Amino acid sequence: MTPSGQDLLDRMAGALARRRVRVIDLTQTLSHSFPSIVLPPEFDQSAPFRSEPISRYDADGPDWYWNNFSCGEHTGTHFDAPIHWITGRDDPRGATDSIEPSRLIAPACVVDCEAETAKDADFLLTRDHLLAWERDHGRIEKGSWLLMRTGWSKRSDATLYQNFDETGLHTPGPDLSAVRFLVDERQVIGFGSETIGTDAGQAAHFSPPYPCHSLMHGAGRFGLQCLTGLELLPPKGALLITPPLKILRGSGSPLRVLALVEAAD
Ligand code: MN
Predict the structure, then answer these.
(1) How much is the pLDDT for 226?
(2) Which residues, at least 6 apart from 136, have a Cβ–Cβ distance to it below 8 Å?
(3) Cα-to-centroid distance, 63 and ligand 1 (Å)
(4) How many domains does one find in the chain?
(5) Are strands 124-125 and 173-174 parallel, antiparallel or unpaired?
(6) Which uninterrupted H or E stretch holds 253?
(7) Which of 18, 168, 198, 253 is most exposed by smallest CB count within 10 Å?
(8) Alpha carbon of 198 to ligand 1 centroid (Å)
(9) pTM greater than 0.90 (yes/no)
């Protein structure tokens, strides 16, 4: 863990002892109806979440209830590991089972872009926006998550959530200047979004394409997608707990994202 993460954990331990910590769930419910990513038809597709009962206190298992479930690794609220992208393919600690566990507890900085996104679904977060945020809230410390709050998780309609038209997806995300700044100048642990990808919907047309996936994962950093409840977090001071499932050589997994926030005394 980075020194800033350790400091926040120490503070949180004090707040825990005083029973002043709130636990906030940033996770969407995993169900068949939650939208999955859709790639252009020339590529293979990720399977949506499916669940089939094995037994439900019935003849197949009189005293117990359980299901078989299946889904793509990148389904629902989920974690992107560095090996998800070709730029991170050789990262020796870049798979879900090999990531150093201390990197899975980290502070979060939350940048509120709800007003901009309401006006423009293709809104791009830039380096200048991040510098303006730092003037108000202080530096984005090394090892922090940068979470982009857009209000996108409130779109319960699957069509509006994906926001497709004939030119592709229209969802907000960071531009190249923001990603470079976060990776190189602030050394964040990763980037989190409320949308299906960490990149903007139109990022296939950026140069380089998908800069958040390409640069973050190439530098051993993570992604979180389909987050919800970001409006419940302070701009700074939340501690995120983000362990993916320990899938052998996994590229990511659905997960429960919890934030610890110190409540006012
Ligand atoms: Mn993903």
Answers:
(1) 97
(2) 235
(3) 37
(4) 1
(5) parallel
(6) strand 252-254
(7) 18
(8) 7
(9) yes
CA 225 – CA 227 distance, rounded (Å) = 5
Q: Which amino acid is at 182?
A: L
Token couple for 29? 């419910």
Report the separation in Å between the CA atom of 76 and the middle of ligand 1, taken as the mean of its atom positions.
Answer: 9
Q: Is position 195 within any domain?
A: yes
For residue 42, give both structure tokens: 């020339």
Judge contact between 114 and 151, C-beta under 8 A. Answer: yes
Question: Residue 188 carries which side chain, given as an amino acid letter?
Answer: V
123 lies in some domain: yes
- 31, 37, 40, 41 alpha-carbon torsion, rounded to 10°: -20
The active-site residue, picked from 32, 74, 78, 84, is 84
Cα-to-centroid distance, 129 and ligand 1 (Å): 24
pLDDT of residue 78: 98
Virtual torsion, Cα 245, 107, 84, 75, nearest 10 deg: 50
Residue 122 sits in a domain whose CATH number is: 3.50.30.50
Domain residue limits at 207: 19-31+73-262
**CB 15: neighbour CB atoms within 10 A?**
18
Asked whether residue 57 is assigned to any structural domain, the reply reads: no
**222 three-state secondary structure:** strand
* Domain presence at residue 38: no
78 catalytic, yes or no? no
d(CA 152, CA 117): 8
Average pLDDT by stretches of 10, the chain with 265 residues:
85 87 96 89 93 98 98 97 98 98 97 98 98 98 98 90 89 98 98 97 95 98 98 97 98 98 85
